[in-house]
From TrEMBL:
Belongs to the cytidine and deoxycytidylate deaminase family. GO terms for cellular component: cytosol. The keyword Lipid metabolism does not apply. It comes from the Bacteria. One of its GO terms (biological process) is nucleobase-containing small molecule metabolic process. This is Cytidine deaminase. Zn(2+) binds at C51, C84, C87. It comes from Saccharibacillus brassicae. Residues 1-121 form the CMP/dCMP-type deaminase domain.
Length: 132
């Protein structure tokens, strides 16, 4: 499944809409037996750009998915791609301690991470509980 997810992420990357940065990113996640993939989508108003990871996650979420089993992210980087902070927090929303996070590049340099490494101390719903 790791290889299938990486392949799907590479395929999704070919749809990246990146007229400004020309930096193509692809992501693919496994949830409920289905693979959801996404690319980065830029905008003339740069701050409205949506990263590939969030595109894939939002596609899955709008299909009713609430837990990610595994996610692969790929870009043409020297080493494994490093997701931005916003995406790390969004992944955390739908990940648990078993979620496998594959960070890779076009040369096949792949690292397998879990949430504790991706974003230690990420904000959680329970952090809003004043009694804790
Ligand atoms: O993990 C990442 C990092 C960056 N980008 C996108 C956002 C923008 O389109 C381009 C350059 O930042 O790469 C992603 O999609 N995912
Ligand atoms: Zn991001």
């Amino acid at each position: 499944m790791k290889e299938r997810l990486i392949e799907a992420a590479i395929e999704a990357r070919s749809s990246a809409y990146v007229p400004y940065s020309h930096f193509e990113v692809g992501a693919a996640l496994l949830a409920g037996g289905t693979i959801y993939s996404g690319c980065n989508i830029e905008n003339a108003s740069f701050g409205l750009t949506n990263c590939a990871e969030r595109t894939a996650i939002f596609k899955a979420t709008s299909d009713g998915i609430r837990r990610i089993e595994a996610i692969a992210i790929v870009a043409d980087t020297a080493g494994p791609v490093s997701p931005c902070g916003a995406c790390r927090q969004v992944i955390a929303e739908f990940a648990d301690e078993h979620t496998r996070i594959y960070l890779t590049n076009l040369h096949g340099n792949t690292e397998e991470w879990t949430m504790d490494r991706l974003l230690p101390g990420y904000f959680q719903a329970k952090d809003m509980d004043k009694t804790n």
